[in-house]
Design goal:
Order of helices and strands: HEHEHHEEHEHEEHHEHE
Distance between the termini: 52 Å
Radius of gyration: 19 Å
CATH superfamily: Acetylglutamate kinase-like
Strand order of the largest sheet: 4-3-5-2-1-6-8-9-7
CATH architecture: 3-Layer(aba) Sandwich
Strand content: 15-25%
CATH topology: Carbamate kinase
């Protein structure tokens, strides 16, 4: 009885993060509840921000790149006849809306969030300046990068790869609705197998379309690791940051 009592008072070991600075890539579609007509679910945003708060509490510096596919997808619109450049700029504006929603959610859980935009719109966001972003990260702010790279024909996956290298991040965490990279679409092929680890070259040659080829190539050239994981599982961002075997690691 006494031994059991002593064991029950033992404090758990503190969590130790593997990474000091990360870029979290979120899709716009992740903000939309399944079957809902609303483009942004406040409940989903709140759940995401709580996961981000958990990681921030470990002392990890976080920058976020958010997509806009829940509101507008430039490539899809161009396939339906819209001029591609215009369609892409509309998609960049959609990411700004999502970024502001995320900022509001992060502030609601007690974090100081800054929105940095690649297209100037001073009334709602700061222009992206690398040194300023790094300084704010060092001060404990969460940075949200919006408006993509500011150029058409580039995805927000490429934005994540670019910004991660610019700010000296140690890893890109690519949040998805599945628990990693598979040999085929697991929703369509029940025999699809999940990779625990895969190389950049395999991703490119086998066209494993979790990120676009430009993003993969930029990460490969600069040796930037990527972890692809399921965002919806509880505490998964924290688990990845602390080095647990979650999702798929993409590396050289």
């Amino acid at each position: 009885m006494l031994l059991a009592a002593r064991r029950s008072t033992k404090k758990p070991k503190p969590l130790k993060p593997r990474y000091r600075r990360i870029v979290l890539k979120l899709s716009g579609e992740a903000l939309k509840a399944k079957g809902s007509h609303d483009n942004i679910s406040p409940e989903i945003v709140a759940a995401m921000c709580e996961q981000i708060r958990e990681v921030h509490a470990l002392g990890v510096q976080l920058a976020i790149v958010i997509g806009g596919g829940n509101i507008w997808r430039g490539l899809s619109a161009s396939h339906r006849g819209m001029e591609r450049t215009t369609a892409d700029y509309m998609g960049m504006l959609a990411t700004v809306i999502n970024g502001l929603a995320l900022k509001s959610g992060l502030e609601a859980v007690g974090l100081d969030a800054r929105v940095h935009t690649a297209i100037r719109m001073d009334a709602v966001a700061e222009p992206f300046i690398r040194n300023r972003a790094v300084h704010q990260l060092d001060k404990g702010h969460v940075i949200i990068f919006v408006a993509g790279t500011g150029n058409p024909f580039f995805s927000t996956d490429t934005t994540a790869a670019l910004r991660a290298n610019e700010i000296g991040a140690e890893v890109i965490l690519k949040a998805t609705k599945v628990d990693g990279i598979y040999t085929a679409d697991p929703m369509k092929d029940p025999k699809a197998k999940r990779y625990d680890r895969v190389s950049y070259t395999e991703c490119l040659t086998k066209r494993l379309s979790v990120m676009d080829s430009t993003a993969f190539s930029l990460c490969m050239d600069n040796k930037m690791p990527i972890v692809v994981f399921d965002m919806m599982a509880p505490h998964n961002i924290r688990r990845v940051v602390c080095g647990e075997p979650v999702g798929t690691l993409v590396t050289s």
